[in-house]
Structures are given as structure tokens and as C-alpha cells.
Backbone:
């Protein structure tokens, strides 16, 4: 177990680099990206926070398009977290957001994903199955991990988008999670605001791999496993396009 040795003391993320593409930000006016997205924090909670939200600088072009994906993620998970400690304040924000037609359309999209009889299955009364666009959800979770990894590892913390990885979701309706997910749960909490997003990290040596549990609103666990870029020399991670 080398976690902790690797990461402490925490180095400040390099403010001159865009964590999404790894390139210097240069002379453009940077976008300020909240990690996790600011909308994950209920309005009612904001005045009670003692520390600022984590923001990372990015190129505007690298940041563009993510707002919509993060909104989809938020709206998709929201129905399953309403009984969480922050559920009532998240629901209040959702009701307020419905005053905007754009948000109503998105809510309708999410609502249509709930099916009474998925694939002809007959569920007990009151039970619905929600079909997520998994690729969109995992893309947002992976972006959050990339931001937190950058925060924790400074200059060495660029996690390329193409890094081979596994991303799995476990929601409040899953009875249990596989052993590796539970094992990572035993690691120390690293979240700045664990009631919104906590995370735990387990580092393995051979091959150099990190396993993460993201814990969202105390209800969803996202398990993320990836080989450590720049350290892992396996066939998947070896630099491509170079021979010999
Ligand atoms: Zn960039
Ligand atoms: Zn590898």
C-alpha cells in the first residue's frame, strides 16, 4: 500500500496547465471548471461551506460542451438520491430549475428513461427501471476523476482522456458491490465536501494502478480503475506510434 506516500504532501495543481488536454493554457482567458460541477452542491448548502469549491483552469475549447453532459449526469442520478441527507435541498433546486423551459425538456428526457416494463419484465408495483445513457454518465465521472487526480498530484497529475480505464456505477438499488469496490471503501476519505462528493483511492504497484471509489451524495458509488499514466509500461499504456 503506497497511497499516501505517493500523494502527501499534496502539491498544488499547476495553474498554467489545462488538466483536460495537458497543454499550457497560454494567453487565452481560462475557463474555471468546478470539480465536481457546482450544481452538485445544493443552493441551501452553499452558505454553510467553510472552504471554496475546487476550481481548475482549462482552455475554453476543452471545457465547452461539458455543461450539458454534467446537467444530464445530475438529472439522471437525482431521482435516486432524494432520500439522501441532501435529498430535500437537491429536490428544491430541481423544482426551481424547472422554471426554465430548457431544463424542463431535459427533465422530460430523464423521465422517459424510467420504464415500467423493461424488456417485457414485470416488476413489482412501484418499482421502475431507469435506463441511463451509460457512456454519458461514465464520461462525466471520468472527468471528475481527472480533475481530482490533477488536484492531488500537481504537475504529474495529468490523466489523459485516452487512459485505459474501467468505470462502473453502483446505485442505492444495488444490494452489494464487488469486493474491490468495498476494499477501496476502507481507505481514508479525501473529499473536500464528503456530503456531496467523497472519494477514496487505493494504489497498487504491479502494474501501477489506481482504484477509486467516488461517493456521490452518500448514495452512488462510481468505481474507477486505471493504469497510472507515465508509470505503467503494459502493452495498453506503452506509447503508441513508436516502434523500437
Ligand atoms: Zn485544454
Ligand atoms: Zn498499463
Residues:
Amino acid at each position: 500500500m503506497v497511497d499516501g506516500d505517493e500523494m502527501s504532501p499534496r502539491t498544488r495543481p499547476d495553474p498554467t496547465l489545462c488538466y483536460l488536454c495537458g497543454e499550457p493554457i497560454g494567453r487565452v482567458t481560462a475557463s474555471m471548471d468546478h470539480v465536481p460541477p457546482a450544481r452538485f452542491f445544493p443552493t441551501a448548502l452553499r452558505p454553510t461551506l467553510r472552504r471554496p469549491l475546487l476550481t481548475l483552469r482549462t482552455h475554453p475549447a476543452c471545457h465547452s460542451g461539458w455543461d450539458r453532459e454534467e446537467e444530464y449526469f445530475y438529472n439522471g442520478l437525482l431521482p435516486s438520491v432524494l432520500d439522501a441527507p441532501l435529498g430535500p435541498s437537491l429536490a428544491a433546486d430541481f423544482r426551481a430549475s424547472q422554471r426554465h423551459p430548457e431544463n424542463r425538456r431535459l427533465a422530460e428526457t430523464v423521465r422517459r428513461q424510467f420504464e415500467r416494463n423493461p424488456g417485457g419484465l414485470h416488476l413489482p408495483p412501484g418499482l421502475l427501471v431507469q435506463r441511463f445513457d451509460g457512456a454519458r454518465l461514465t464520461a462525466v465521472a471520468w472527468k471528475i476523476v481527472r480533475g481530482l487526480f490533477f488536484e492531488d498530484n500537481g504537475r504529474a497529475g495529468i490523466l489523459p482522456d485516452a487512459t485505459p480505464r474501467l468505470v462502473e456505477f453502483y446505485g442505492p438499488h444495488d444490494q452489494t458491490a464487488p469486493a474491490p469496490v468495498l476494499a477501496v471503501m476502507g481507505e481514508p476519505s479525501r473529499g473536500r465536501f464528503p456530503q456531496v462528493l467523497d472519494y477514496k483511492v487505493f494504489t497498487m504497484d504491479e502494474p501501477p494502478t489506481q482504484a477509486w471509489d467516488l461517493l456521490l451524495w452518500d448514495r452512488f458509488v462510481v468505481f474507477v480503475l486505471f493504469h497510472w499514466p507515465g508509470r505503467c509500461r503494459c502493452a495498453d499504456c506503452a506509447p503508441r506510434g513508436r516502434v523500437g
Notes: The radius of gyration is 19 Å. Residues 62 and 227 are 23 Å apart (CA to CA).
